[in-house]
Fold this sequence. Notes:
Helix content is 72%, strand content 6%. It has seven helices and three strands, in the order ααααααβββα.
Amino acid sequence: MNTTSNNDVEKDLAAYLDKVDQLLAALPRRERDEVRQEIRAHIDDAMMDADASSDSQRLQQAIQRLGDPIDFVPELAEELRLSRKAGRGHPAAILMAFSARMGRGLLDTLLIACLGLGYLFTLGLICIAVYSLFEPQAGLWLNQGGGWTLSFEQQSNADQAFAGWFWLVGGVAGVSLYAVLTGLLRWWLKRSVSSALKNR
């Protein structure tokens, strides 16, 4: 490839990314850079998959496949912003992320259901742990017939586990589970954003 065509490719790519930057101007620098990197990685991947003979043609095919930035950059930026906030564990952002992903497919719906149940269990565990500071009978109970019960009150025919310490054990377990669920949510949302670009 000669220097002139190489310069043309760089100019065309820079012009496309300048349009992206203009659409992202209102975002903080870190978020702008993240969106730009995602788009640049997608262009590079699409160029490798293109069947054209020159880099200039491969770039044009990649850009055509991706489309005009005005058609997808605002939505992509919003999804990345939301995934970052949800990935930090903000409850409102988690609910918004669930709402935004609901109905996008069976796998998304199943993952939302599983993560949602996990968050509900975690919330219950933390509530019972805090309540056990004021009501010592709240906590985890081992039933004589086998099985466990997490309860706000004493259970008949059951032995209390971590008696007097459930506030600490349950609290640590709840916070740890919240962190694990949030890490899974962050991974899934980031993967979803990358998939959305690849499917363009």
